[in-house]
Records
---
Amino acid sequence: MRTEIASARVIRKEGKAIWVETPEGDLVRAWVKGALVQKVGPLRVGDRVRLEAKEGDWVAVDLHPRKRLLIHPPVANVDHVLSVVTLREPSLDEVWLNRMLVGAEALEFPVAIVVNKVDLLREEERSWMRTRYAPLGYPLYFVSARTGEGLQDLLHFMGHGIAVLAGPSGVGKTSLLNRLLGEEKLPVGDLSRKTQRGRHTTSEVRLLRLPHGGYVADTPGFSQIRLGEWMEPDELDRYFPEFQPFLPCAFRDCTHHEEPGCNIRAAVERGEIPAFRLAFYHQFREELDAYLAWKRKKRSGRTR
Ligand SMILES: Nc1nc2c(ncn2[C@@H]2O[C@H](COP(=O)(O)OP(=O)(O)OP(=O)(O)O)[C@@H](O)[C@H]2O)c(=O)[nH]1
Ligand SMILES: [Mg+2]
Ligand SMILES: [Zn+2]
């Protein structure tokens, strides 16, 4: 009889119990030691825990250090945020995509761009997307949940990690999720979840096992990204990876507008930074400045 499992992955929560996957791939139900919850707060799917056998039950007694914690949905140790977008049906929401890229940089989540519905695209549209986004350095995948094109490459990229899908409404997140899961599909419990609301079924996010290993969260994340909650306006340029080789400018607080000695503008003029990215920088910077002004006003209003 084993008395300990050194490391198992929490893949689902159910009331006070958790379901963990052992290194051998077995699914085991366990309880969480009260002292552990007091120490680290609630466990999250994605967490790795040490289990001990106590009176015929498994009990999680320790949490291995967390790398990253996503809040909506709550998933620990996220390895990939897959930003799903489309060029047609619906057309590309570049504001969403660029805000996502910047937000993920700020929160230090590794992000990839997944263009779905490529079955609807002409070759010129794909190459437009590739020319525009590949130079930023993010992994870029072209897939179709309808035809299955590109999904093996994407699964290979996801590897054994934990992935969370993100993307605007209608881009095909649910379709992709089902297609990526292959034969396994969402278990019946998931299908009836909507009709069982109010019963004992869990509404928490779950991790679903991908056919080649790895997991994907059953709930998409990052539906809205409010950059102002994560950064100060003058930090924004740190989250544009392609700006980094050119920073700092002559003025440390350069906003990359008309200031003399602005390396970013110069790089745009030489074609070394895409002009559209500087335009998004200015757009987000304005939003952040306005948000900061609003916060200050609110604060001073309260003290009076
Ligand atoms: N042509 C084509 N249509 C697709 C593809 N993937 C999804 N669709 C269609 O796009 C529509 C939206 O797909 P969903 O999977 O519901 O999109 P979603 O991102 O989950 O949308 P929300 O749940 O509203 O956020 C459906 O009609 C799908 O059949 C694809 O690869 N090609
Ligand atoms: Mg959906
Ligand atoms: Zn500058």
---
Amino acid sequence: MTIKLASELQPDSVVDGTGIRTVIWTQGCSHDCPGCHNPGTHDFNGGFEVDTDEVIEEIKGLEGQTGITFSGGDPFFQPEACAILAEAIHKCKMNVWCYTGFTFEELLKLCDTNKAVMDFLKEIDVLVDGRFVMALKSLNIKFRGSSNQRIIDVPKSLKAKKVIIFMSDDIDVDYNFGRYEKKGIYI
Ligand code: SF4
């Protein structure tokens, strides 16, 4: 099947999740967050179409990457294609991060009417969720644009049926600024 992307894959990012990552920039987003840093990715008619098989071949050829990060745009407007890619990424022994303007709770509700949303969620290791809120923007938070956004351990959260915050030595500093309690449960 095809996926709409905003640009070519971007390898060697160190700001879109832990480790060294390749970013897949999806095209299309209707959240319309004031102050969005990537307005060129909003138009659902913009970007370009590419076959997921082609993207998978490119992913297989990547070297020295810890994982892949889906960003955009909002990848959850194309959950079926993203789920196919994320499954292939895991087969290549890389982890999957995803940025979305939806909250985790909103995505769970969408699963009731769109099975592909759960298919994609099940292939995500870490989700950075929620709209960008200009008033909550901070340079003191790592991997997030505004402090309302949460870095979520998706497998644990799906199992627990509530949000469990992703814990990592790389992002300890977040918890000095975020609204989290010690056990990693969002409050
Ligand atoms: S969800 Fe992300 S891409 Fe979409 S408008 Fe908000 S900040 Fe921009």
---
Amino acid sequence: MAADKLEEKTERETKMVDVYVMGKHYKAPEGLTIQTALEYCGYNVIRGCGCRAGFCGACGTIYSFTYDLTIKYALACQKEIEQNMVIMQVPFFPSIEAIYDLGDLEPEEGKNRLLELYPNLITCFGCNNCTKTCPQDLLVMDFVSDALRGDYEKVYEKSFDCVMCGLCAARCPQGIQPYNIALAARRLRGSYLTPAPQHNLDRVKEIEEGKFDVELEALKKSSETELRRRYAEREIEPAL
Ligand code: FES
């Protein structure tokens, strides 16, 4: 079928939505996400795209409407297109992540490691832009306050669903990076404040005592084909 006929048929059977990508007008089928709509419109989405499932945070996107210029935020792989949506891709957020060695950061009474790593945390004046921007609806400003008090546990709880898209940092007038601060808090909590699981400790001990040496040596000598076969035939824990 000729392309124009196919397009005509598609338009007849599917409700088409008017969208604008970087100012250019397109029609795309209702129900597509911003990401799939971009591809439908002919864009090759190879930057600002990862898991396509709302987990990796690579697809932070801003959009508005022709009748409402307020900037809104979303993950492009999750947000469905709407009539008269104006889409602007934001493929990359420059961000400065503190460089640290977790081993040097044991939490101590009276020392807020997060403030040491991110001193501008103290400049938050509570505008709440970060919370309004978060596509995961997290209480970002709340966990920034928790971070300021050095409450790693609270930051962990409130930021658990963060996908590291960086949109919160993009909107902070003080240049604070809530997502990186929360990541540091979760790492500190995991390293120092959570008891190590006994089964892990037991397994590490077994490895150190050489329990698996023979098997590991055999694996090292295996061909790629053999490794692939063993991988495909491995025992998989049933899903709960
Ligand atoms: S592509 Fe991974 S969150 Fe959207």
